[in-house]
């Protein structure tokens, strides 16, 4: 027992000499309370030799000496190589172990990472022999190397010192000692130290690396000469990205991956499209010449476009997808993660072993864009985990034109943000392509083993300006003096291979010439490219449909009652919260016909019908399980043991999957994730629910650049549903408006639907329509707050069973149309305020029409509803929002088109305001009363 414990202790990096202070702190805690430390530490301390006459407490000097004695004996109680040389050597043995640990912690700070040699590295005393009271005079002394994974227990200090510098201060700088999991650190040490960070490559592997560099360089030079001055965001200087990606994909396929999804911004994108994904160069050249695919709506610039293909690997073909993305840098990363999660779910893969996400970042962007932190934070959560992402940074040491470190970030490395999730970070010199390939495979194996994110910092340079029209010397004069004299990576590696006899110069010249000829022919230049067969989803059923495509939405009453019974069935012994128990008792009464259905029941029934049909539902949001306003309670919590139960997951055997997650406290990354999910999975009702509708402010970039325009720019369909609580209840500026006006302003080209349902039956049929209609476009819902429990906002089972969402709802009271002098049009909660006041007034001369879908505007339906009021000349649009917000400014052209010729249209609502709503309930009530009275006041 003691032997195994001491071996574990010795192998643990926490016990290395550099952690002596930490060991003392743990021991002090043990002295105070033995139960306060872990079982492993308690066992070690319990078995330490006792100081005579002392049962528990001991002098720290005595304890330190006992640790030194253990170091002398070695992990199994045997005399170490240094053990026979006396007390002085014993002290040096401890110092040697401290030296090893120092290199593991700080070796990266002295690594040879910058191809240009411009980095001014601070002196790291921990890596100097003298700091550990060692010197070159000790080089011939043999010491035990502890857990240093070089295949031998002991080494002369000189050999060890050389090995440490080669391993930790060569072309790779490894940061991993911040990881608290000992198994992960040992795994990295084994893989890293066993080959001293420099494995051997056979001739074929080296030639393939060279081919990748030739392709990267050749592509850029070809574009530069053929289209001088055109923006291409050249990869030059970071050429190693091409062999890196090719090896990464090949290795992933060998390890069982079936799909790889890549997200990247501009730098090197065209090169990746042609040299990795296999896009025909001739197609790219046509894009540079101004030709375009006229079927693609507005289109987009060439360095935003995505692409898909299959790629041959030793493990079979892998499907590659490069995500479309806008200029907003890092925002594509959560989109990629969402797409990967959808593919995992479709394949029934829970650990990410069959689908790999790769995100490629800029050095300034990864440090500067907050969405990066959000995606790191999501990476291990239930709702958003993908089994780890391989994150690559093209670190050209320049942020646009800002190269001063203290201007672009506040951390030593641009990758320090990754430490928040304890991701290992491998910095690598891009001019050493073999080191690049080594860390690439190491990174993927780490990700596959531990299902966590890993970062590769590809330290390179930018041969041109931010784009090819810039003059970089204006802001980085010293750097670009170096760049102009620096040989390209292809030349450096080719010279290395010719010097070592792997290839001769004529063979190199032929490889360069062959690649140039391939570009001239315009055909695919990627040997591994294959026609697509691996993609596992078919979008063709959703193409070519318009809003009026018929679908079968009706559902039988018996079926509704059956499903209602199942979603109201709670396991025996499951103790509900008293308020939740009452809610479920009321739902049971609704199914039995004793009460009308409220919003929560109708919504839940809609979900039940969808999963009963076999489709998937995925809902995320910060309070989605219960609903922000305590109305949904789709996820039940046992008050006795906190276990959860979801009735919607227990509809029937073989039903569609039902997932509801309370998400991380993020809007931008979460909405981007759900967008990515919905673009990869059409047979899923994908829903994001805002805690309050105005929280979409935090996700505006996703709405602007993906959701509203993705189909127009890239031809990407997406069925994401957004539930945005909206309504003026006197809750102040930040909890009233979902900014309806923004969505309406962006409404064009039939890009999405904007709906404001006002009854439970409407939300039931709206959600079903979104799934049943063979069309996948976003659905933006201004969902209610107070209407969730409004006495009049109820529906019958028969209204649900009807199966139709009404874009416009006519007057419901039995008014004589001939007596009507004014028609009020409105949407949402204000309808019930108007209805209540009109009934109190006993008015019969004002008709109230609800427009439930504001975009696409239902011209035909509203014409039919307004037909009885052709004689009316007084029409009003009434809204709760200020005049410059809501639907008035963006939709009034539709309202004017709807009313009879010669009729007058006026506005009633709050006056224009810079703030969405007032902050005082008393003022809110005065405004609300005034706008209702104004709307109903006939002349």
UniProtKB/TrEMBL annotation:
It holds the Pfam family Transket_pyr. Its EC number is 1.2.4.2. Keywords: Glycolysis, Oxidoreductase, Thiamine pyrophosphate. Gene3D superfamilies: 3.40.50.12470, 3.40.50.970, Multifunctional 2-oxoglutarate metabolism enzyme, C-terminal domain (3.40.50.11610), TPP helical domain (1.10.287.1150). GO terms for biological process: glycolytic process; tricarboxylic acid cycle. It is an enzyme of class 1 (oxidoreductase). Residues 597-790 form the Transketolase-like pyrimidine-binding domain. It catalyses: N(6)-[(R)-lipoyl]-L-lysyl-[protein] + 2-oxoglutarate + H(+) = N(6)-[(R)-S(8)-succinyldihydrolipoyl]-L-lysyl-[protein] + CO2. One of its GO terms (cellular component) is oxoglutarate dehydrogenase complex. InterPro entries: 2-oxogl_dehyd_N, 2oxoglutarate_DH_E1, DH_E1, KGD_C_sf, ODO-1/KGD_C, THDP-binding, Transketolase-like_Pyr-bd. This is 2-oxoglutarate dehydrogenase E1 component. The gene is ogdH.
